[in-house]
Amino acid sequence: LQATSSRLIRFNTTEVVLEIQPPTCSNCLFANGKSSVDLSVALRADSSIKATTTYTYWKAPDILSSSFGSQGISISVLFDQVVNVIGGASSNSCPLLAETMKAVGSSAACTWASPNQLQISLDKTAVIVPGSTLQFQDGVFAPVYPFETNKFLSSTVQAPAFPAPLTVSLKGPSTVDACSPLQIQAGASSQRPVLFSWDCSNDDALKSAISGVTSNTLTFNSGTPELQEFDKTYLLSVIATDFLGTVSKPATLQVLKRRAPSPVISFSPPYISTTQTADVKVLAEIQFSSCPIEKSGFDFAWEQSGGPSIDAQYLNTSLPQLYIPAGVLLAGNSYVFDFTARMTVDASRTARSSVTIDISNQQLVALISGGSRIQSSSRRNLVLDASSSRDPDQSASNAAALAFSWTCSVWDGFLAQGCRDTSNNLLSLPSSPVVTIPSGTLPVLAGMEYIFNVTVSLPNRIPSTFSMPVSLYQEPIPTASIDFQGGTRAAGGMLYLASAGRKVFSGACDPAKASYEWAMMADSTRVAVANQSSDFPMGAQGSTFIVASSYFAPGVAYTLSLTCSADGFVGSAFLSVSILQPPYGGACEVCLYEDARGGCKEGSEGTTSFSPFDTIRFFCSGWASSSQPLRYRFGVSYNQGTDTDWQAYSTASYNDVPCIKEGTMLLLVQVKDNLDSVNELVSAPGRIGSVTSWKKVTVSRRRGRRLLSNQTGLDWTKLGDMIVSAVQRGQWDESSLLIGAGSEQALLELDTGILDYASWLRSTQTLLSNLISAANIAFFDPATACQALNLGKSLLREI
Question: What pTM was computed for the model?
């Protein structure tokens, strides 16, 4: 092709300077946003006299694909090249048109998972579905060399190639009597709203009554008239359908309607799906019958009815709480445990229910040691070590069961080809964890990398692959490597880390005499790594490189490098690091809890004013994370944030708080994911610090309403009955909240003169006695033990 135009700028006896307008390259083949062609300048008089160089065409980025992640909570946008974001890439804001931004949710965040892959994290208000169109702002994307920015850029969002299975669970009692109401709640694993479909397989009347319900709750009034027959077991089921069209397997619940009064059992959480690396805690929640009968304590018992047998010591408890340490339940199995509650005054009043615990297999981990990208010399043996690959469900001693498969390819800018040795034979690699390629085997390829892939597999498990790019040099450069214990490694080498905790990286150089030099890039900008600074306390010249916990920020692409210098030569290793976004997109709200519904009173969401003996439900919904499951820690503060009672982390996304103390109460929650990344973006009052969410509510007497408290103060008899009931039912969290709030209210009434000293002392001593009884029914994990001790010290200090 001839140049469109050329112009002579200047010349002398040794040099000619021309300005050349290149032609449009409509037939160019672009790879990674560029196409390199030969540019020749020849004399008109003698075209054999010419000079030739390489000229590179650049084009604006284009979108190869956009698709939902497997869980439907994010969209991955893959570009055809490394993208330069005009205006900076460190912000989490999304360069989307306003209409698209509304579809992904106003709080959606955009981060770069790699230089050519944008990750859009949807918030809970997202309405975008497969087939929707993403539309990006003009002029925000450019090639590495920003000669040309994008114009109108859009892409149709595809459904995930491998959608995560949608699971649904049911929470509700297994028995109901002639007097009690009944509420059954369904929960789905989707972070987006789902439609539920209810059924009863053995009763046409009940089937007809519930067939049109699409919400997550079935509510039946006292006496459950829809369940028309006594001493019959009703077989209820529910399925869920999410916005991707994924349909869950049915979850079932058997409910026996008894004529005789009996206690009601439900579980928190109602269903558990976890891995064998996590402790399992299940709380059986018992409610007395609504029939007018004598109330007493219960005898509790646990039995196993499904799954591989576990040691009986884990079931030998008289508490309504089941605790099984990590490692006891085996991956790939489903366990069923039966719980029985029998009233001590009448053994015939017995309730029995079952909870299912699924222990899932974890993803196999494929890993080649050294970093995300390494350099080596053709004069040294190239050692590729994948022995750190593992099955997280097995001990290190069982790692030998993994099968290893290796491949090698070279990308020439247009297509991938198999690696060839210096004799032009295809490279053959053994099926072993460590591969050693002798020096001189591979030719040095200027400007290109060898890509080594290892795939690890086990029968009946999904294989896992890891890629290591290797740049080979003729010079005898040192070999550098970077490693990190922990985190999650992606197939392309990216290391994903939680935001919490300092990060310790280890490096190695060969030969051992080589000197070390660490460096870091953040969004393609070099970071000043100062020796002995608070951000990098170990400096940059040792085998260990430490980054302070507060330094890394989510949404920024980091590249860590270690350069080894010896005998005048340098070799480097590189590690790509990304900080996982903490749980996002959700909200937490308060409502008035209603016993008859087993949930929020209709229309009470957002209420901030309550009366004594009301129960507040503080609940969270819509939180999402790439690292499931999520865990919640709830807290209550009665003194404007000076003292806070925190519960232990659990998978329960709500907390019920009884209103006892008049005045202002702060309700707090922290949400963290499976890698311990905590959402702490909101500052709470007082000395509480940062939390995920908090709400301020007021407890006071209201005019025109019959109160359970008398005219001169709290109804302490009523409070005492509530505490005794909680203790009898084995509910530690409920009883501890009642005791703590009662202590605060007693002090308030002493200060205001409602209680004299003798009355206050009797009340406080009674609360201390209640605490001792309640402590006997508590989980004795560290968080519970501290909560009980602190509450006891507070009561003793007051006395």
Answer: 0.67
